[in-house]
């Protein structure tokens, strides 16, 4: 463990990172790989950075879709395409197209629409798609995404693989940003009382500004790597892939990791209610140290969250792949945590010595 990582490991913290973006309409997207895990491991983080939105309907602003990706047949989509597999009709089928010089872009898109595509991912001819000028807003009411040549080639190899464990790709696509908006990343450790005091301050400050409708609070959860000196994985899930080392011996990391999944699901279900939920959670659960799903659900119900939808989100976060169980929420949070650690972007607004390291 290097010195910088060790320093962070000795601190519990809460942090907001303001990521100001001034963009018009829907022009950013994040791809999160759900399946297959071999594809996810091809990238340093679960979000693939080199993706831009060529077109997306306005109603998709700040929305997420779970989609299945199918290769166009033929892959360049310059001629009418063969039908999608029957199973595609039970999903949100996105068609993957490799851009060539053989035909016009609009032809490729219309061929995909004709076989029932709900969206299109186009593998560009270039690695960097962010500066391309050919990003037309088509009249068709479906999203069109562009992925760079290098990243797209990895997708293509999986989609055309003969191995059934590799060639079915499931993504979560989140469309971002609307108008002039600020996204604040709010780092959370469920057992840390400072989190809830800070949430109270956030709520008060947001209520004082006329920009409240343009501020997106994004909760992020601290997920640690397995410590080299760990004798067991009592604080870890999924064979040590995701760990959390609490500040006190009262809690084991497994319980708090599961709380993090539930909390992230609440944010996904209704982001606007998330900070009020934290304040209810502070009063009911954190104040007497009852970090359990039951107490969390009672707090969520006060904000009129749909508890059936919450359980459904929680269940979907665990899925069996390659005879192992993984959790996409914990994977996303751990990847973000690693990225922020590596880029030294954490702002430690509050720090305190951690008893586990004293």
Describe the structure.
This protein is α/β, with parallel strands linked by helices and 358 residues long. 31% of the residues lie in helices and 22% in strands. It has helices spanning 3-9, 37-40, 105-114, 149-159, 193-207, 253-269, 274-284, 293-302, 307-317, 328-342; strands at 16-22, 28-35, 51-55, 64-71, 93-98, 119-123, 144-147, 169-176, 180-188, 215-221, 236-237, 242-243, 318-321, 324-327. The strands form four sheets. A seven-stranded mixed sheet has the order 2-8-4-5-6-7-3, sandwiched between helices. It has a three-stranded mixed sheet with strand order 1-9-10. It has a two-stranded antiparallel sheet with strand order 11-12. Strand 11 and strand 12 form a beta hairpin. It is elongated, with a radius of gyration of 22 Å. Residues 1-26 and 345-358 have low confidence and may be disordered.
Order of helices and strands: HEEHEEEHEEHEEHEEEHHHHEEH
Largest β-sheet summary: 7 strands, mixed
Query: What is the general shape?
Result: elongated
Oligomer: single chain
What is the radius of gyration? 22 Å
How many strands in all?
A: 14
Fraction of residues in H or I helices:
25-40%
Q: Uncertain runs with pLDDT below 50, 5 residues or more?
A: 1-26, 345-358
Indicate the mean pLDDT.
75
Structure class: alpha/beta
Strand order of the largest sheet: 2-8-4-5-6-7-3
Strand content: 15-25%
Counted by DSSP, the helix tally is 10
Roughly how many Å apart are the termini?
17 Å
């Amino acid at each position: 463990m290097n010195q910088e990582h060790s320093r962070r490991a000795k601190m519990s913290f809460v942090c907001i990172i303001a990521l100001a973006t001034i963009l018009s309409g829907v022009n950013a997207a994040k791809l999160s790989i759900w399946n297959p895990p071999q594809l996810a491991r091809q990238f340093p983080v679960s979000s693939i950075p080199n993706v831009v939105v060529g077109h997306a309907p306005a109603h998709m602003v700040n929305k997420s879709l779970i989609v299945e990706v199918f290769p166009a047949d033929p892959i360049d989509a310059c001629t009418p395409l063969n039908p999608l597999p029957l199973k595609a009709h039970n999903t949100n089928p996105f068609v993957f197209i490799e851009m060539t010089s053989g035909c016009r872009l609009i032809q490729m898109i219309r061929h995909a629409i004709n076989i029932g595509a709900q969206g299109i991912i186009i593998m560009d001819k270039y690695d960097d798609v962010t500066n391309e000028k050919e990003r037309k807003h088509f009249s068709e009411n479906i999203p069109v995404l562009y992925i760079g040549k290098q990243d797209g080639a990895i997708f293509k190899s999986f989609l055309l693989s003969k191995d059934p464990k590799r060639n079915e790709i499931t993504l979560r696509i989140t469309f971002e940003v609307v108008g002039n908006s600020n996204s604040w990343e709010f780092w959370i450790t469920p057992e840390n009382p400072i989190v809830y005091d800070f949430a109270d301050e956030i709520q008060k400050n947001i209520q004082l500004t006329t920009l409240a409708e343009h501020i997106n609070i994004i909760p992020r959860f601290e997920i640690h790597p397995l410590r080299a000196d760990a004798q067991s994985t009592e604080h870890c899930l999924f064979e040590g892939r995701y760990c959390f080392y609490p500040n006190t011996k009262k809690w084991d990391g497994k319980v708090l990791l599961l709380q993090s999944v539930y909390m992230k699901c609440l944010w996904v279900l209704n982001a606007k209610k998330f900070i009020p939920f934290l304040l209810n959670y502070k009063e009911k659960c954190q104040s007497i140290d009852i970090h359990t799903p039951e107490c969390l659900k009672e707090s969520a119900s006060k904000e009129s969250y749909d508890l059936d939808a919450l359980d459904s989100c929680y269940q979907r976060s665990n899925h069996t792949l390659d005879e192992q169980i993984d959790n996409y929420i914990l994977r996303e949070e751990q990847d973000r945590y690693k990225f922020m650690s590596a880029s030294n972007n954490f702002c430690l607004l509050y720090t305190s010595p951690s008893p586990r390291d004293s």
